[in-house]
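quick one
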Amino acid sequence: MSRLAFTLEKTAPGTRARVARFTTLHGEVRTPVFMPVGTQATVKNMTAERLLELDSQCLLANTYHLLLRPGPEVFKKFGGIHRFMNWDRPVLTDSGGFQIFSLPHSRTMREDGASFRSYVDGELHHLSPESSIAMQRAIGSDIMMVLDQCIPSTADHAITEAAMHLTHRWAERSLLARGDSPQALFGIVQGACHRDLRLRSAEYLRNLPFDGLAIGGLAVGETHAERYEFTGIATAELPENLPRYLMGVGTPIDILEAVHRGVDMFDCIIPSQLAQRGTAFSSHGKLHLRRAAYKFSEEPLDAACDCSTCRNYSRGYIHHLIKSDETLGWQLLAHHNIAFYHRLMREMRAAILDGTFAAYYERQRIALVRDDESNPPVHPAPARIRKAPTLGDYDIQPSRCGTFSSIRQLSSGEIMHSVSSPEEEANRLYIAQSRLAARLLRRTPDDTEPLVVWDVGLGAASNAMAALACAERELATHGAHDLRPLHLVSFECDLDPLTLAASHASHFPHLRHRAPHTLLREHRWTNPDGVIVWTLHHGDFLAHLESSPAPDLVFYDPFSAKTDTGLWTSEVFARLHHHAGPRPAELYTYSAATSVRVALLHAGWFVAEGVGTGPKASTTVAFTRIDKTTTPHPARLLGPEWIGRWSRSHSQFPATLPEADRPAFAKAIESHPQFSVA
Ligand SMILES: [Zn+2]
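structure w/ zinc ion:
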């Protein structure tokens, strides 16, 4: 039945890791396998000969890019991609869906497919399940993917369910369109982070005649823990006798975790992209070759690596090439990084075959997250703190479950992110909910207007670093060419929390990055290609408000109204609203307090329920305007039922409001346009 003659060879005891092999039109693939990404029918900085030397088994090519340039006619002329790029081993093509759905402003979506404008020549294109398959048939790949509707992994249940059903209808159409082509075709399990939908999607697709199944819609906004959990949920439902492919994943640790959960195939742009930024994977952590620490080093990148880069070149020479922006530096690092990924896959395969994978997994899950161990970028902190270290009015508090640490203000007793880990809360509440990743993508090819994000209440930089990590991920996936610049503006009156956390980075993994340390020193940090700029206003937020560039997004995270009363008033929100001017701005905050919502409404904001996080059932999202020009937002505006609750609430009015002004205040709230639109 299957076009791949899939054979499951062995499953590792104590884990779900497995070894398999299958046969394509261009030869055999042994799994677990990593597929280097050849977006434009070329793996960046690698010739086909070098890929063969590293024993790359299968490459991935992007249908979207190849459709726009060189176009299907060229592939028809050459008889397919293999001859065109001089590669006679297997090729997998994606459907183009992921790229199109990453362009929310320049495409329209209908039942039959999506229309979008070419970034090459501005021409209008239509991509449907049928035309995607037609293009993949012209490319002549060994494995084709169905067109699916990609949504953020954090989308709510209703949106996810609708996208899943559409993806299923498109899956059936893709199978019909494939017809009698000998090319294999994979379905894609969707369902974001909703367990019931993932299960339904897997169950639906396993009953269709696909040659393999992929897990889509992960690595787009969820936390690592969620990614691992939902990978495991999906693989548990997938048939034993088909290959399983986790799309777009990931870092070495992500791949290890996914193999442990039964995934066979991976692709990711990270090894090539990091090479271009001067970073090498090694058996003792990631090396950042730009750093002066390597200037005089005669050592190879990794003594445990036998690739030709490591056999022939020193760290000192590569440091020089990278500093000089010489393309040979990128080539040497790309070669080594892909060798590193392939070796990881070979080691896992060998460990599964000889029954030692469980032990290998336990060793590697620690080893793979090390960062430049021989020349650590941050001074190592003692592994355990006996007495809570303090600075000024702050100390470090381990969480009750012991998995993360927080900063506590001694005078108020208030703890930043006391219940869920700071990274988790930042990603869920600010990064995913504001759809930061999608907003960073250019809406048109010449859209270079910076996205301005305000981070009010820098604290220990959890939110700012989550935004920065999101931008770095997008940069790694799409490249600087497809991104708008990010200007992150942090406001903080007291730098002690960040200074304290940064000097104990072992408790705050998000601070193991050069950026927060540079920001503390220079109040500004810029990434190497200048796409991400982070500035710091040290002092009173209200003193800097009007002199800062107007925001598109505001992450509003100062201490609570109890501790920091002055920052939660209607007057402050009105100044923010006014400063945003005519451009639509959105504000996200952890508070769901009636007093905060009513202050926002009174200041002219439209106010909606935000996602819950940790023990909080909900948070707050506010918009300066709601009209046809603003993108629809999944957050639900407060309605009449909220007005009802508000009018019975104790905190109906700001405490400082004189009795005489209350009727006028109440009238202003009740006549807010958000309640008059039915
Ligand atoms: Zn090497």
